[in-house]
Amino acid sequence: MNDPSVILESVTLDLPVYDRMSFSLKSNLIRGLVGSGLKEDKGVTFIRALDGLSLTVRRGERVGLVGHNGAGKTTLLKTIAGIYEPTLGSVRTRGQITTLIDIAMGMNPEATGYENIIIRGLHLGHSLSEIQDRMDHIIAFSELGDYIGLPVRTYSMGMISRLFFSVSTAFEPDILLLDEGIIAGDPAFNEKASHYLLDYTGRAGIVILASHSKALMHLFCNKGIKLNQGKIVAQGEIEELF
Amino acid sequence: MAHVAPLRSAIADLIEAWRRRHLWMALGTFDIKHRYKRSIIGPFWMTLNLAALILGIGLIYGSVLNAIHSSYVPYLAVGIVLWTFISSTLIEGASVFIFEASLLKGTTLSKIAYVFRSVWRSLWVLAHNLLILLPIFLFYRVYPGIGGMLIAAAGLVLITLLLAASSLLLAVLGARFRDVPPAVTALIQPIFFATPIIWEAEALHEHRWIMDYNPMYHVIETVRAPLLGQTVPLTSFAVTAGMTAIVALLAIGVYAKARRKLVFWL
Fold it and tell me: Which of the listed residues A113, B184, B213, B252 has the most CB atoms within 10 Å of its CB?
């Protein structure tokens, strides 16, 4: 098997922010009719979310992304995942990626935990039979017990986190991209999750976690990267970054 | 990635969406099941709703228009069932990407799969609504025969393709221009009145030819005429097939152009 890797070369990403005007058909029609040298991107503001960022992550590395809100942590995860295509530079990844950024993604609160495992599994690109094969493992790992047959709206945030963390890791992706909110749940489960991730990166995987929490970083990561305004400002030991 | 031609990526997305049909089929079926969770007769509420509408129009409108001949109610029923399918698919299609924003921003699956999910949902509703036709056809003794049913089925496949292509086109436009979804909803109503569904094309007498220029008339005729045991409307099939081809090309072209930027619009 090829080793999984993530290689970013001077990646710049401009996120367009559309104001209400540019979203209406009228303004575009008028612009089209009048013409008069008005630019296509009028009314669109660009935010430089990532700024010439280069990064290499290899097998067994558990990288923690630190930085203020808006430093570009989540954007970087989405760029690595291929959800955002960079404006400049290149993103090359090897291995199957699973992203766990928005916990509520595709979640149906009326459906049971069991049904939500299937829904999320499908969204992650797995077939029904693959999901069924891992069902027992997912339910056991989530520690939800009989709650698995109840609608997810009856769950606490911690239970929802456990459920979706269990689904995302059950298919053993080569590269796991996590946002902090996912594992903020309860300390006992975090311990178990961290053991899992340790074991998992030991086998082959890459984990990249965006977080504010020093405690979580220590638990999950063996390398840290500090972002500020879309640039890497420091990297190395977790301890040195706080 | 950046070097691949946009059109090729768009076609790759289309192929991926088809390859992953178990995804949108399962999710679409799920949507229907959950819409009626804890209801006793469940999705058959849709059937009952439509039956009440057909009965109401059939009795009241039929007697006002003095059109209460035995073939009016079956005609009306087929028209309403098809129209409900067409209008709800187009209205939902225009907001697919807005509605699925969190998924589009959270996965790298083909975005076309979510358009198919919406169409699949509509097909489920159609399947429930088609049941109304059975008692009506029995009561009014309408027998399309095997041949008629096969032609109607072919027409239905064609309409579904047209709706899938239209949904993709409207979904992209709707994500970029937020006026599109309400505009579609607003336009649907006048199209309904301009199309022979509750009234018959024959009512136009010498102006009947006007309907030859109403594409929606042809779309509905591809299924309605064979089901009512009338002659196969070749012109209607040709018009519908032509529209499907044009809309499909347009949709894939617009999608190809928007594909990379789509996620930023949501």
Answer: A113
As a whole number of angstroms, the distance between CA A128 and CA B257 comes to 33
Would A183 be classed as within a structural domain? no
Place of tokens 């209205």: B91
Terminal Cα-to-Cα distance of chain B (whole angstroms): 22
For A6, the 3-state DSSP assignment is strand
Contact A98, A195 (CB under 8 A): no
**What pLDDT was estimated at residue B65?**
65
For A149-182, letters b (16+ CB in 10 Å) and e give eebbeebeebbbbbbbbbbbbbbebbbbbbbbbb
Domain with A40 in it: 5-96+212-241
**How is B86-153 classified by DSSP, letter by letter?**
HHHHHHHHHTHHHHTHHHHTT--S-THHHHHHHHHHHHHHHHHHHTTHHHHHHHTT---HHHHHHHHH
CATH classification of the domain holding A223: 3.40.50.300
Q: Do A25 and B177 touch (CB under 8 A)?
A: yes
Interface mutation target, options B3, B21, B109, B264, chain A, most CBs of A under 10 Å: B264
Residue-level pLDDT at A204? 64
Buried b (16+ CB within 10 A) or exposed e, B68-95: eeeebbbbbbbbbbbbbbbbbbbbbbbb
Q: What is the per-residue pLDDT across B101-154, written as a single tens digit (0 to 9) for each?
A: 988 988 888 999 999 999 999 999 999 999 999 999 999 999 999 999 999 999
For residue A37, the model assigns a pLDDT of 38
Report the Cα B254 to chain-centroid distance in Å.
20
Q: What is the tally of structural domains in chain A? A: 1
Task: Give burial (CB, 10 Å; 0-12/13-18/19+) of B172.
Answer: buried
- A210 in helix, strand or coil? strand
In a domain, A78, yes or no: yes
Task: Select from A98, A106, A83 the least CA-distant residue to B34.
Answer: A106
Closest CA–CA distance from residue A240 to any residue of chain B (Å): 31
ipTM: 0.80
Which residue, among B228, B257, B60, B68, has the nearest Cα to B142 in the 3D structure? B228
The residue-averaged pLDDT of A48-77 equals 90
Is residue A177 in a domain? no
User: Does A102 touch chain B if contact means CB atoms closer than 8 Å?
Assistant: yes
Arithmetic mean of pLDDT over chain B? 91
Residue A46 in domain: yes
Whether the CB of A84 is below 8 Å from some CB of chain B: the reply is: yes
pTM of the model: 0.88
Token reading at B208: 């009947």
